[in-house]
Amino acid sequence: MSLLQKAWKLIRLRKDRERVVVLGSGWAGYTVARELDAKKYQAVVVSPRSYFAFTPLLASTSVGTLEFRTALEPIRTRRTNVSFFQGWADGVDFKNRKITIEEAVDDPTSSLALTHDRHAHQTQEQRQEERKLEAKKGRLFDLSYDKLIVTVGCYSQTFGTPGVKEHALFLKDVGDARKIRNRLLACFEAAALPTTTDEMRRQLLTFAVVGGGPTGIEFSAELHDIITEDLARVYPELVPFHKITVYDVAPKVLPMFDEKLGKYAMETFKREGIDIKTSHHVEGLRPGAPGIQPGESDEHSVFTLKIKEEGEIGVGMVVWSTGLMQNPFVADALNGVNGTPKTLEYTGAALQEAENGPDSISWKVKKDQKTGSIMTDSRLRIKLTGDNDNNPDAILKDVFALGDCAIVEGTSYPATAQVASQKASWLAKRLNKNDMEKGGFKFKNLGVMAYVGNWNALFQGGEGSNISGRLAWIIWRGAYLTKSVSWRNKILIPMYWMINWIFGRDISRF
Amino acid sequence: MSLLQKAWKLIRLRKDRERVVVLGSGWAGYTVARELDAKKYQAVVVSPRSYFAFTPLLASTSVGTLEFRTALEPIRTRRTNVSFFQGWADGVDFKNRKITIEEAVDDPTSSLALTHDRHAHQTQEQRQEERKLEAKKGRLFDLSYDKLIVTVGCYSQTFGTPGVKEHALFLKDVGDARKIRNRLLACFEAAALPTTTDEMRRQLLTFAVVGGGPTGIEFSAELHDIITEDLARVYPELVPFHKITVYDVAPKVLPMFDEKLGKYAMETFKREGIDIKTSHHVEGLRPGAPGIQPGESDEHSVFTLKIKEEGEIGVGMVVWSTGLMQNPFVADALNGVNGTPKTLEYTGAALQEAENGPDSISWKVKKDQKTGSIMTDSRLRIKLTGDNDNNPDAILKDVFALGDCAIVEGTSYPATAQVASQKASWLAKRLNKNDMEKGGFKFKNLGVMAYVGNWNALFQGGEGSNISGRLAWIIWRGAYLTKSVSWRNKILIPMYWMINWIFGRDISRF
Q: Where is the FAD/NAD(P)-binding domain (chains A, B) (predicted)?
């Protein structure tokens, strides 16, 4: 196909539709891209992942209750009309309405939790040099947009705790779940070797979960389930050596649940033998057993977790599920605004400034002071702020931000999948109907859920109804089955639940 | 548990059963270990893999027709009574009846085709030093046996072709299948980038399969299926760029099938647009496009395949499915015999030698001169040969060898799963009934099958019946479903066949 033909084809595909570029493929980005009316908009997703990960099921996949792919939906499908480029957003030009993309087809961090800026090791000058080279190689390219939707999400925050980035496992993406499953089974296999001492066995089978939010609690519960239901049958002699402990700096876990449900969770965990240690502080993680210097120790052996209140503990695996770090793209690329975009709408003080000509103001993206999140108005449009004494505000009418990287100014909705997907559906509907001015986004709390192990769960409805135990577990499973996206997964998920209940979870490791 | 308690436990577990150590977990090892009577024998499998791979389904998993785990069975299960240590056999002491094991819990080659001796980079002295260190760390340990069954299989042979070990993909284990699936999808994703030129697109989507045996043919057929059935729908603009070519040095492919079936396969492939190039010789494989020196080129870009008859071709992926190399364990560890084992039975010339006392002879394991395979008698017991002029023969009555690493002296059974599993079942039965002398092993050819794409297959029955097309495909699917081991997989396999037929194969890449 010649270049001319190709240009023709893009025009033909695009017809007279507006191009909506969506950065990110998480709850917000995937939802809005799918729900946009393909007759009106050409949706183009740009993301380093070729799939959407159904995050609430990742804990289940990390122990094999579900197969990994049941928590994934590919962005490209037969049935939807969404275009896709696998890449990182690398820069935005609001004035000329185009973004720069760094392709990520072979990105080594693909499918893993992100813990640091991938260009952090470079100076700004080095990065600029690299960008030129990448552009020459075709690895960096521009894409124009009519509307831009920023849903790049957050990175995992390790609070600078030494060794955590390098040696802890996370639970943000499917590659993380895969690493956890492999490591868990490797710990049992290593403990089963005849030369492993009982002390080493105990350390290999000590699992620490850092963070007492729903993810940490659900993972601990699933871990307890696979150990007692499956591993106990194939490694009966090893099960007495295992220990699961949840650490949290806060004085209580599951803060989003009311006291009664929190207490139920604590009691369930106690019965299951899972320790919850609140007001505990992780100070570091390093390879090797306590008391042994790195280098002396065995390669596949244990890690030493340092807890302020307890000292050093030998552990087989640390799963880190706490803390959000602002996305470097939001911190760096979405900062200063070059020139004044035509689609700016002035509000408040800015209205007066407009008389002087908007070009007199140097604009930047307005952010939350504490979290660094992008501030939007109630229509999810990003806000700019001017640098002069009047602190003028403005709204960029063609750029939206939602998901964990953004907050609606004046609200404090939590950084959850529920908020992200509600915002996404709201935005798609407004864009499809072209009635943005009708009214702002309002979050409707549909309740929170958490699995606590042994077929028990917590459910706290939006209107305050509290359910715990087996019934909550049925609601939990029913809700995730209903919410899972494709028919394929709606069939596979209950299939795996049933098969693993009958035959046990698969423990092949590869 | 104290050391004494542990010793007690092993004795208690063992009761008065003989310990049968099985080296390897392929078709031969997995089958014999499962079929041994747990009342009579304590079966202990030693293998670097914690699972058995149902190899005929690997090609299906490599394109997502089946999920990876449907081709795996964990060695440890709830239902069987097989012990397992994850490790490499590192040495055998026939006289004292013990083997040395190098643990392999975190082995980086785990689940991948083996192409070279993992200690090849070391001199014998270096390896001896390392062994001492490993023994000290508990990573090398001895295990005694009453009976030993050697089923270590073969490695993949690359015939020293430059770059093949490093850059080709194989199809011997589930990790290989996973790499192929990821690479295939990455090629399409890279080709979809707007900056990829049409020339680069054509190279990225050129797939070369080396080897026209059943594995190479079935993989090509499955690859053709996913491209035309699934990728054509999500990347419609890219499909015209793709090309699949099968290369073989021999003048024809599928030599085990009779002419009519071979012709049917060739015609089917022709209709599907797959090229078969017989009498072609691969001379090398390197990263980078033809005409571009390595280093200049892009990281994730294409490879250059050099064919004697065609010159250099740019390809996105080379799948190598030809050639068996003798296992280094067989070549090195199973060679000279230290001292004279008590369980030696002399045959032929050795009978006379025995009068002089067996210790006068220096024994070594008898091997096939051409392939280096272990020679066994018709009872699958390994043969030793003496070093003096009479070339005395002897049989080691408590050591068996089967699978791809062994042949029955005087036969030429092919190195197939069928031969391996028949030998394994025969041996388990003889050991269970303790009637080894009843009669030797005889192979019963149950026929050969190959999938050729588009719901067509070949089936050549043991008694010469030939079937091709849709009916053969039904036989093909039926046979593998029947032979798949666990109920879990017997349910999951048809489930995935159905779901992928209805919804298409999953193209998420992680």
A: 19-331
> Is A76 in Cβ contact with B235 (below 8 Å)?
yes
Please tell me the distance in Å from B251's CA to the nearest CA on chain A: 36
As a whole number, mean pLDDT of residues A180-184 equals: 97
Does A435 touch chain B if contact means CB atoms closer than 8 Å? Answer: no
User: H helices of A82-228, where?
Assistant: 124-137, 164-167, 174-191, 198-204, 214-226
- Confirm or reject contact between A487 and chain B (CB < 8 A): yes
For residue range B234-274, what is the model confidence (pLDDT) as tens digits? 999 999 999 999 999 999 999 999 999 999 999 999 999 99
Domains in chain B, ordered, with CATH?
Answer: 17-106+119-154+326-434 (3.50.50.100), 164-321 (3.50.50.100)
Give the range among B41-55, B111-125, B297-311, B392-406 with minimum mean pLDDT: B297-311
Degrees to nearest 5, angle at CA B246 with B241 and B249: 145
Q: What is the rounded CA–CA span in Å between residue A419 and residue A173?
A: 19
Distance from CA of A20 to the nearest CA of B (A): 17
Global pTM? 0.94
**Average confidence (pLDDT) over B297-315:** 86
Could you say which of B74, B87, B510 has the minimum Cβ distance to residue A508? B74
Task: Write a three-state SS string for B68-130.
Answer: HHHHEEECCCCCCCCEEEEEEEEEEECCCCEEEEEECCCCCCCCCCCCCCCCCCCCHHHHHHH
Q: Which of B106, B112, B133, B173 to mutate to test the interface with A (most CBs of A within 10 A)?
A: B106
The distance of B78 to chain A (nearest Cα, Å) reads 6
Q: Do A85 and B51 touch (CB under 8 A)?
A: no
DSSP summary character for residue A396: E
C-alpha radius of gyration, chain B, whole number: 24
Give the pLDDT confidence score for residue B382 in this predicted structure. Answer: 95
